[in-house]
Beta sliding clamp
Amino acid sequence: MKFVITKSIIENIISSMQPFLEKKDASSITSHIYLEVTNSTLVLKATDYEIGLQSTITDLIESQDGKATVNGQNLLNIIKRLKESDIILETVDNSLVIKQSRSNFKLPMYDANEYPSFPKTENLSPLNINNINLINSIKKITPAIDNNNPKFELNGALVDIKEDKINFVATDTRRLAVTYLQNMSNNVNQFIIPKKAIIEIQKLFLDEIKIAYDDTNMVISTNNTLFFTKLINGKFPDYERIIPSSLRYNFTVQKAVLVESIKLVTSLFSNIKVTFSPHSIIFESLDEESESKTQVDIDLSIDSEFYIAVNAKYLLDFLSMSNNEKIKIGFNESNLPFYLEDEKFYTIVMPIVLDK
């Protein structure tokens, strides 16, 4: 195998593949990037078995067919140090040689025939959804996806395809985040995308995409890029029973007022108490060793006083993902879950229970 390529092109691709490599075990073939040249087309792959990325470069100026694998981190470290001009990569015996001008590097290879295969795209069900809508939807719920929960299904986001809409759902058991889109033509189904894949999808796809899935994998592709992730095998909690069927109080508040006040009282401690009364909102820290408090005078459409106690991060996560200047807040009573809404995006937060 041999090909000549511009440094910036291959550096960008190798950089984008780093999250897909096995980092803990450099002796594993999944720490390697796979390279194959066929008819002046270069295909590069990286996978840790759970997620994978494939990129294709066509119309190589100078090439010889063949395939190789090479440690992805080491290859990137070499390419970064080279000058902004063409690079030659070729296999010599059992090594990949990287050359530019008078610089020469040699990295060991593994057997390219042993490289893990990517899932087949035939017989997968299509998911018809606009890429911008997909990215915006998963971005909003990402902060609520749990990390390293023993219940594996909570370490991902649920895509719940209903007849009339598609719900994107995440929970870390302290809050539930849901955003939804209108379902135009997709069959009713559910699947859970791992958090790592959710994060990578947001980085990779800005152009039009094709999405397909089955019970095991989801594949996203463009003309030159193919991404896959294994789906989480598990049953997501019945999130709809957590959503209140009715709310005793419902009112809107300026987002900027909430953000400013919350940040003001959380400089030392993240847990806060927010008291709503007919003519004001009081924000105060729950830190027992210090006092932080601020008040906003505002007329609310409520007839009695009640409060929420909560980790301020949950409020700020929601507010940072909301698009409008005003957000809706809903309650039934103190010490019960409360509701935050911004158009087709809402979060239900479990309160910190305080003695009345």
User: Anything to note?
Assistant: Helices lie at 7-16, 72-81, 131-141, 195-204, 255-265, 312-321.
